[in-house]
Amino acid sequence: MMHERVLLLLFIMAQIVEQTPITDGKVPAVIVFGDSTVDSGNNNQISTVLKSNFQPYGRDFFGGQPTGRFSNGRIPPDFISEAFGVKKTVPAYLDPAYSIADFATGVCFASAGTGYDNATSDVLSVIPLWRELDNYKEYQSRLRSFLGEEKADEVVREALYLISIGTNDFLENYYLLPHRSSQYSADEYQKFLAGISRNFIAELYGLGARKISLTGLVPIGCLPLERTTRIIYGSQCIDEYNDAARDFNVKLESMAAEMNLQHYGLKLVFSNPYGLFSEILNNPQSFGFRNVRSACCGTGYYEMSYLCDKLNPFTCTDADKYVFWDSFHPTEKTNAIVAAHILKHDLSQFQ
């Protein structure tokens, strides 16, 4: 089984490399902001219930070690970093096992459970987006001390910045708690979030970032945890949530186009995984999946974080047959497919 799995991932990575040839120094570092879709372990170092630094998380990662990634293995920034010839994994900034020498070629500031909205990060006491930016500023200072001003400025300017965030704003905040939904209509809230996204990217630009990829939302109403709330109706996707994700993506794409015109030298690409993810959910067999409704970990309907532990007797033996690892997060195989799509369709201009 392990041999088959290794061959499958090697095949997926071969497709990535074929679609996006390995570059030679054009992207010296990969710098990551966002939520659990891209968090490589920062939540391990803060006081929150939203952690994944225990088995079976990471069981298919290098050495079978849990790292704080919300998956059985690697997440999209890891695959993207490898495809650009940087390194196979992007370390978490708060991980004491790494130093500025490691971070100089790539670093992750993301925090699982966070959102654009500060109120979202408060729900599970995680790192808000503004704090991710503060950590990045600190990183720049450390980088200049380590590399010198000129070399550090080059890394900052030529690095690829990946931003993936927004799901929690809707599922753990707007549609779950009354405060924001009483203040804003769904359309107004999307505009509110898009405005925060614009300001965040403008700050990154002001700090020297030029190559930025902003990732939109997948069909969030089809996550197993959301389907479980409709279990008496056959575990159908929640159309209202999917519509919000789709509409929000339109706003982000429009905002990205405007910013490219307004900021000299900015190369901001909007990566929209909605269509690809819909295709995977509607035609799983075409991608080698057997299960799209439930996840691999536990019963697959509600388990996430501490509910998904090594003592749960229901966890599947082969995660590659599942689109989702836990009730909220994709498997490593899904992450590899999404990364390959983004590399081919959105990041090719950075080669």
Describe the structure in brief.
This protein has helices at 2-19, 76-83, 100-103, 118-123, 129-147, 149-158, 167-174, 178-183, 186-206, 224-228, 239-262, 274-282, 332-345; strands spanning 30-34, 106-108, 160-164, 211-215, 267-271.
Question: Would you write up a description of this structure?
Answer:
This protein has 351 residues and is an alpha/beta fold. It has one domain (2-350): 3-Layer(aba) Sandwich (Rossmann fold), CATH 3.40.50. 43% of the residues lie in helices and 7% in strands. The protein has 13 helices and 5 strands. The chain has helices at residues 2-19, 76-83, 100-103, 118-123, 129-147, 149-158, 167-174, 178-183, 186-206, 224-228, 239-262, 274-282, 332-345, and strands spanning 30-34, 106-108, 160-164, 211-215, 267-271. It has a 5-stranded parallel beta sheet with strand order 2-1-3-4-5, sandwiched between helices.
Topology readout:
Layout: H1 2-19, E1 30-34, H2 76-83, H3 100-103, E2 106-108, H4 118-123, H5 129-147, H6 149-158, E3 160-164, H7 167-174, H8 178-183, H9 186-206, E4 211-215, H10 224-228, H11 239-262, E5 267-271, H12 274-282, H13 332-345
Parallel strand pairs: 1-2, 1-3, 3-4, 4-5
* Radius of gyration (Å): 19 Å
CATH superfamily: SGNH hydrolase
- Average pLDDT confidence is 93
Q: Which structural category do the helix and sheet elements fall into?
A: alpha/beta
Which residues form runs of ≥5 with pLDDT under 50?
15-25
Biggest sheet details = 5 strands, parallel
Question: How many helices does DSSP assign?
Answer: 13
Order of helices and strands: HEHHEHHHEHHHEHHEHH
